[in-house]
Design a protein that fits this description.
Helix content is about 25%, strand content about 25%. The protein is of the alpha+beta class. The radius of gyration is 20 Å and the shape is elongated.
Length: about 120
């Protein structure tokens, strides 16, 4: 069953009582409206990115995590990603990759990083 809270139930009731409809705004072109809040859950509690996704796999040999770092460019060659340039403690560093890069810099900064790297619309 889908997890709900008393606050969510009240929110949905207010939307419907005022004549609006609930939508899945991820599936419709017109994104004006209301939808149920989405949350990440880990064993019934609100989960954060680190505990839900990164902590369980941090020992993998193919995963490299650097805290206190800010990616500044995704390096490409012939349309293929070859590495990442980042700043850590004021020092610029680069790392080459052999398979893939996961971009996780937030809504605005992920798009900014891709565009500064020449990936996406011009």
């Amino acid at each position: 069953a889908r997890y709900t809270t008393p606050m969510e139930k009240e929110y949905v009731r207010m939307v419907l009582d005022n004549g609006y409809e609930m939508k899945d705004l991820n599936l419709v072109y017109n994104q004006t409206g209301f939808m149920r809040p989405h949350v990440n859950l880990d064993n019934g509690a609100r989960g954060d990115t680190y505990n839900s996704y990164l902590k369980p796999i941090q020992g993998r040999s193919n995963l490299w995590i650097k805290k206190h770092s800010r990616a500044t460019k995704i390096m490409t060659e012939n349309g293929k990603v070859t590495g990442v340039t980042f700043v850590r403690y004021g020092r610029e560093q680069s790392v080459k990759i052999s398979k893939e890069v996961m971009v996780s810099a937030g809504t605005v900064n992920s798009a900014k990083l891709l565009m500064l790297s020449g990936i996406g619309p011009e």
